[in-house]
Write a structure and sequence with these properties.
The chain is mainly alpha-helical and about 280 residues long. The chain has 12 helices and no strands.
Length: about 280
Amino acid sequence: MNCNKRNVSFLGAFIAGASSGGCSTILFQPFEVVKTRLQENAAVSTVHRKGMLQIFSHIVQKEGPKTLWSGLVPSLWRCVPGVALYFTSLEVIKSIILPKAKNTLDPLQALAAGASARCIAGVVLMPFTVIKTRFESGQYRYRTVTEAFSSIYRLEGGRGLMTGLGATLARDIPFSAVYYAVYTQLKQYHPSGPTMGKSFSCGLAAGIIASVVTHPADVIKTSMQLFPSRYQHRTREAILSIYRRLGVRGFFSGLVPRLVRRTLVSALSWTVYDRVMQSFQMA
């Protein structure tokens, strides 16, 4: 790949990531809010546990429909640059590890590329992940992202802004590795040509598999970010506490809304990514 072609590829990846990240965040934020509330409810109550529809109904009736988009601003701060950085990093990594004679990655290369790209994006944007989760819970009364950032830093230090980093990476790195590997392999074996329907259907299948596999880490991450003093920023304490209180089922709290959101977000993001890259003649 020559220099000009490579630069176009990186630009296409950035544009695809930013546009798909923004659209998917706005469309599917309610599922993220409901998922966070379900996990919060499971963390504070072992007796009266609410389901997804109950949480949704409660928010609409008691707090208003607007609350379903709480945390949208930090979500956009996290997802728009995050997805853009992920896709751009992915293109950079592919340009490094992919031999000139090949156009596609093998499964092991796809796993490594997806994991590495997600690791970069996850670490850089971790503070916004913490702020987003706290906005969604309704437990913290921050008015702006700036206020949340300064409050967390003042009360908890820099460590507070990175709360749950280990659990987040344990969720995001396997998710991206599994997703990208499954997605690329399904596209290779799909009988039809390069179409939006093909990208979306492969994205849905890959999203379901990756979401289920990584959900326990998502529960641990949310618990640590909502109740930092309870776990003292220790992943092991969070794992043991969830298991003692709720058993194995506790690690799958909020699975349905996350499954819906992550699957649709990922499918949409990769469909837009493929489309944009094709328009840049780099697909």
